[in-house]
Model the fold of this input.
Amino acid sequence: MVKRRYLTGLIFFVLFLFPQLIAFAQTNDSILVVGGTGRIGSEIVKALEQRGKNVRVFARPSSDRKRLQGLEISYVIGNVLTENDVAQAFEQQKYDAVISSLAKVGEEPNPHAVGGQYLTKWAKKNGVKHFILISSLGAGPNPVHTKYKEILQAKGVAEAALTSSGTDYTIIRTGIILYGEEPATGEAQLILDQNVLGTITRKDLAQLTAECVLNNQCINRVYNAVDCSLRCQAQ
Done:
């Protein structure tokens, strides 16, 4: 009798739980990463892929993909400075989230302002639930750091376009990023104080970004990514 009750209970448990386990396994958020072949973007792609996300990378035809070799991801080819390319990327499929980690490389045109506006516009049309923008401390129309004035102003335009779009957003600003192969310290954090200049590794920044995807605690926040185990100082 005890065995029969045990087996009956086990069967009921399996029949009840199995469909939920299948549904959980099939939960695979679709994420578009813009700038995903770059030094920061590639680490974000890796962090997302490790979490089992369905990742697609928006990249130019000339982009070097060597940082993403071996990953189970797909690509959409285009240039963020061409609105038709951006529109086609969002018309091909629905995305749950978009992460923009655009960077200016060499003599190429600055992609932040124009690209940011196109991405925000078409993400809204696509019904994207969450847009994460990797930006910089001091971004805005009147940056204090005049050495990087052009880039900070352009990033400010991208931030303004995103915050006024009506799409749920997270802006993650950074101070000093270590662009080498430094391992993650695990000590980095997202803070609201914009007056702290901190240092952070690419890998830690990527982990913080991945943890924020579709996370209600991150929605409509402007963060400062810092790792005070490396360096933090008041501006």
Residues 29-234 form a domain with the Rossmann fold fold (CATH 3.40.50.720). Residues 2-26 form the longest helix (25 residues). The radius of gyration is 20 Å.
